[in-house]
């Protein structure tokens, strides 16, 4: 399946009601679809102004934002369309200051059978390579203070440890970790941290850092404590030469089902990580084939040599080889 097919697995964009968050100029659901409602943190004119100087965003292709999620809750701004079949957010959840509240607000706009579809960067293949993975304490601390901006620790970790990474080099084992270049000047760490502490300034960083396995484990722990009610329907692990994974989560019938689904997914990912990858198996098979080819070649040469030594010409020329050997030794 393509990335698009995995993200829309089992969903009919032409018939489903969908809230897509943070689509910018690359929506998953075509803007002409009758059931799509686009949400962002700014309205379209403000997004156009914000991204005017960003070469990776085509401001002429920005979707029309139907609702601005900020001062009002998601349920309030999407009241005209909620409850919906699906909420989609690509490369967004890692920016959310209060993950627990965000998950619960998404749950509030879904139908009982509705689902949440996420595209999440995989720390191992992005600029977050050297950053600390998110743990339960990080998420709960942000939730308890009702964080509205990235917290000091997150800003410090970002500035101190974000590096330039080519994910292909990571996958191929050619990345030189000793030569990784820091994206930010480390001398700015305290300056930016003080700005957060004293001025409550917003700095756009990845608040949360995941691998597929760590995300599944975190969601399991949060479900155990009753902080969300999603169960894991499907998690597409990060594919070769890619830097993101896809999660499909659905509102669960009860907490037991939610916890069990994330536990099972975490175990599956851990087992898969311990097993040889398809690329490693292919490389092993190639080596085995090469060894067998060389063995066959050696066996053929041995047969040829045996045939020569048994031949009449070999026996007749034996004295000449002896004389030749004596001449060489005498020289």
Could you explain the architecture of this structure?
By secondary structure, the protein is of the alpha/beta class. It has a domain at 280-330. The protein contains 13 helices and seven strands. The chain has helices spanning 3-7, 44-50, 74-77, 99-108, 136-144, 152-161, 167-172, 189-199, 212-224, 255-274, 278-310, 312-316, 318-330; strands at residues 18-21, 36-40, 67-68, 84-90, 110-121, 230-236, 244-251. Strands 3-2-1-4-5-7-6 form a seven-stranded mixed β-sheet. Helix 6 packs antiparallel against helix 8 (189-199) and helix 9 runs antiparallel to helix 10. The radius of gyration is 30 Å and the shape is elongated. It starts with a helix and ends with a helix. 31% of the residues are buried. The mean pLDDT is 91.
Largest sheet: 7 strands, mixed
Query: What shape does the CA trace take?
Result: elongated
The share of residues in helices is 40-55%
Structural class by helix and strand composition: alpha/beta
Distance between the termini: 73 Å
* Strand order across the largest sheet: 3-2-1-4-5-7-6
Low-confidence stretches: none
Order of helices and strands: HEEHEHEHEHHHHHEEHHHH
Strand percent estimate: 5-15%
Number of strands: 7
Q: What is the tally of helical segments?
A: 13
Q: Give the overall average pLDDT.
A: 91
Rg, Å, rounded = 30 Å
